[in-house]
């Protein structure tokens, strides 16, 4: 499961479940929110040190009260043991007050299709923020699920870092398609926010947007954020 601060994996047992919270972006206020988690927490601790942590409920979420500093600066793992069947509401990115949708790298479903894990695209922290990095393979695609309650036309913008002179890919969302070309930004860690086209979403509900490299013209890039800006 993708979360703003990292990832969550799980193990399901007969009468309980164990969640492993991989925290890449440590909360500065000491409150790690696990959105949608309604299950009763039996125990919580840091995986590395076994030090217990406290949890509290907040509406339909669980908040883990963490220390001021992470155990591991890259990936601190917190273990939650929950009672009974796992009870989680599905939380997807949605439109803000302006009707825009922000799709961060941490919410992306990265679909690697090669057996060599060394060439797999994955989350890479660049300049203190998550990006989709090491995206070398043209067979790899990336997609996001999101919610729309105000349909319409959207401007699609992408924050990318490109070393090569240019790279090309296609963006698909329903029946809308964009043939996108991004010119060099001067490096993988130098990001530029550019408009790549427009799409139409004519129905409210859950939608998917997918980025697929143009195999003949693909060059590696780092991808930070995709933004859908409602055109008024």
Features:
single chain, 232 residues, mainly beta, 5-stranded antiparallel β-sheet, 19 strands, 0% helix, 55% strand, globular
What would your notes on this structure say?
With 232 residues, the protein is mainly beta. Helices cover 0% and strands 55% of the residues. It has no helices and 19 strands. It has strands at 2-3, 6-12, 16-23, 31-34, 41-46, 54-58, 61-65, 76-83, 101-104, 109-111, 122-126, 129-135, 141-148, 152-162, 166-173, 176-183, 192-201, 205-213, 221-230. Strands 9, 11, 12, 14, 17 and 19 form a six-stranded antiparallel sheet that branches. Strands 1-2-3-8-5 form a five-stranded antiparallel sheet, with no helix packed on it. A hairpin with a 2-residue loop joins strand 11 (122-126) and strand 12 (129-135). It starts with a strand and ends with a strand. The mean pLDDT is 93.
Quick description:
This protein is mainly β and 232 residues long. It has strands spanning 2-3, 6-12, 16-23, 31-34, 41-46, 54-58, 61-65, 76-83, 101-104, 109-111, 122-126, 129-135, 141-148, 152-162, 166-173, 176-183, 192-201, 205-213, 221-230.
Write the layout of secondary structure elements.
Elements: E1 2-3, E2 6-12, E3 16-23, E4 31-34, E5 41-46, E6 54-58, E7 61-65, E8 76-83, E9 101-104, E10 109-111, E11 122-126, E12 129-135, E13 141-148, E14 152-162, E15 166-173, E16 176-183, E17 192-201, E18 205-213, E19 221-230
Antiparallel strand pairs: 1-2, 2-3, 3-8, 4-7, 5-8, 6-7, 9-19, 10-13, 11-12, 12-19, 13-18, 14-17, 14-19, 15-16, 15-18
Number of continuous helical runs: 0
Q: In whole angstroms, how far apart are the ends?
A: 33 Å
What share of the residues does DSSP label as strand, in percent?
A: over 45%
Mean pLDDT over all positions: 93
Approximately how much helix is present in the residues?
under 10%
Q: What would the principal axes of the Cα set say about the shape?
A: globular
Largest pleated sheet: 6 strands, antiparallel
Unreliable runs: none
Say what oligomer this is: single chain
């Amino acid at each position: 499961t993708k979360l703003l601060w990292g990832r969550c994996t799980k193990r399901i047992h007969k009468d309980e479940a164990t969640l492993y919270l991989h925290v890449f972006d440590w909360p500065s206020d000491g409150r790690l929110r696990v959105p949608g988690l309604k299950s009763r927490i039996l125990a919580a601790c840091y995986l590395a040190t076994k030090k217990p942590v406290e949890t509290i409920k907040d509406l339909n979420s669980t908040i883990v009260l963490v220390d001021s500093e992470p155990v591991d600066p890259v990936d601190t793992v917190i273990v939650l043991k929950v009672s009974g069947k796992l009870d989680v509401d599905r939380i997807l990115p949605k439109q803000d007050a302006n009707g825009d949708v922000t799709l961060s790298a941490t919410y992306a479903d990265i679909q690697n299709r090669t057996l060599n894990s060394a060439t797999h695209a994955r989350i890479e922290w660049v300049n203190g923020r998550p990006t989709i990095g090491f995206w070398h393979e043209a067979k790899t695609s990336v997609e996001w699920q999101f919610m729309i309650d105000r349909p319409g036309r959207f401007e699609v913008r992408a924050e990318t870092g490109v070393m090569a002179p240019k790279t090309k890919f296609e963006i698909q969302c329903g029946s809308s398609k964009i043939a996108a070309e991004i010119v060099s930004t001067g490096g993988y860690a130098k990001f530029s926010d550019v408009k790549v086209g427009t799409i139409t979403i004519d129905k409210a509900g859950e939608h998917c947007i997918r980025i697929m490299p143009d195999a003949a013209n693909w060059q590696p890039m780092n991808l930070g954020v995709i933004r859908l800006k409602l055109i008024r």
